[in-house]
Amino acid sequence: MNSPDNIPFKSFIQIQRDINTPIYLQIANQFIQAISQGKISPGTKLLGTRALSELLNVHRNTITAAYDELFAQGWVEIKPNKGTFIASLLPLQNQKETETFHYPKQTGYSFKQSILLDSPFEHTNCEFILNDGTPDIRLTQFEDLSRFYSSNMKRKSNRSKMGYYNQEGSEYFKEQMLNYLQSSRALKINKNNLLISRSVEMSLYIIAEILLSAEDTVVVADLSYFAANMIFQKSGSKIKTIPIELDGIDVDALEDLCRKQKIRMLYITPHHHYPTTVSLSAHKRMRILQLATQYGFIIVEDDHDYDFQFDKQPLLPMATSDQDGMIIYVGSFGKSLAPGFRTSFMVAPENLMIEMRKHLGIIDRQGDILMEQALGEMIEEGAIHRHLKKSRKVYKERRDLMAELLELELAEAIDFQIPTGGLAFWIQWKETFSLLKLSQIASQNNLFIPKTLLYQQKNVQAMRIGFGNLSPEEMIKSVAILKKSYQRTQY
């Protein structure tokens, strides 16, 4: 196909006049695709600008501009008094059978695939949705968020901070976070013990990357946070489970396991255990710390919903009692705010923090200075405290209403304890039936129950049901659908 008359230009050049891409660039790009697919061979002479412009029904200057673009990129060579040719140095490509270009559906190479990271999250069009205990973003103080963020965008002193990467984050925000953590959690730390990340999951990923190796053993409760389990398993570590009791994990079982084998890490959510919502008792906290020092395992304390405590003062983190540097404390900040304003933090000894900052610098190099500045001001001016105080009152009312509804509609079918904090209930079904079938029936009735809320094992028939995201009206309708769906599973 060395003659320009033999090139089927119109078969691979399709001009779209209703899009923003200039026509000359459309032509140039489609030439490049045709060359890459072997439809035009290296050294082939192209039609002159006048002939091609008439063929494609465009202005001659458009073709000239397209050829100039191809020449500038090295796809064609222009020979004086001879014309324009496909660059002869380009490698010869096998012509593809398809007439039009389609992006490939599959790679042309093999790669390692992991079922461990298969997303457990589902999507739905149902009007009512149960989740595992997330806040209601409709309660967010959008006016405060907008005011603080907007003022930081307009502040000239902040503009220089936007021009460079800074995985260390805002020093001002770190100072405010230090004050916040010291006052709310009694943590005696300095800024070298604190690292800001995007989410708890990112924090756990960094922890696993630094501290875990293949064949290490990570201990979790036999019911635990699925995302954390996925992260630890992805590192190559082995997961060992121990029972969860009414006052937290079975510490006797933990000690027995330590005697039998080397434990690298213990992952716990002691304030409100995920998913059962129980709190780890004081004597168990002390025993776990003693075991960590004795057997040398790391404790990752995930305090994901510390801010939501209703009936009494929240329990102080285990990290406040750690004198031997065995605990990495992970938590969320701004969980009651809109998702884009939430962040996470890690607290650990300085030598580990140095390594963590290196890894954060790779996966989140740019940081988010403006958002952190805005959050820092919300702490300093008390907006966060005011928002939490208001939202806790609303969530307590919703918790009490959910308890009333569950007792009224499902008392004969379930057992549950009213949680002292957090935004979810742990309900245990008295009879054995398919929870997946329950979820499917509920979905048909406009209530979505994700699979991640369903816990069905040999001795467990339970669900974690969030109430924070539901208004009273939504809660009433959701529980009514749940009852109706349960009754249908009994037929």
TrEMBL record:
Pfam families: Aminotran_1_2, GntR. CDD domains: AAT_like, WHTH_GntR. This is GntR family transcriptional regulator. The keyword Calcium does not apply. GO terms for molecular function: DNA binding; DNA-binding transcription factor activity; pyridoxal phosphate binding. The keyword Transcription regulation applies. In the C-terminal section; belongs to the class-I pyridoxal-phosphate-dependent aminotransferase family. SUPFAM superfamilies: PLP-dependent transferases, Winged helix' DNA-binding domain. Keywords: DNA-binding, Pyridoxal phosphate, Transcription, Transcription regulation. The lineage of its organism: Bacteria, Pseudomonadati, Bacteroidota, Sphingobacteriia, Sphingobacteriales. Residues 21-89 form the HTH gntR-type domain. Gene3D superfamilies: Type I PLP-dependent aspartate aminotransferase-like (Major domain), Winged helix-like DNA-binding domain superfamily/Winged helix DNA-binding domain.
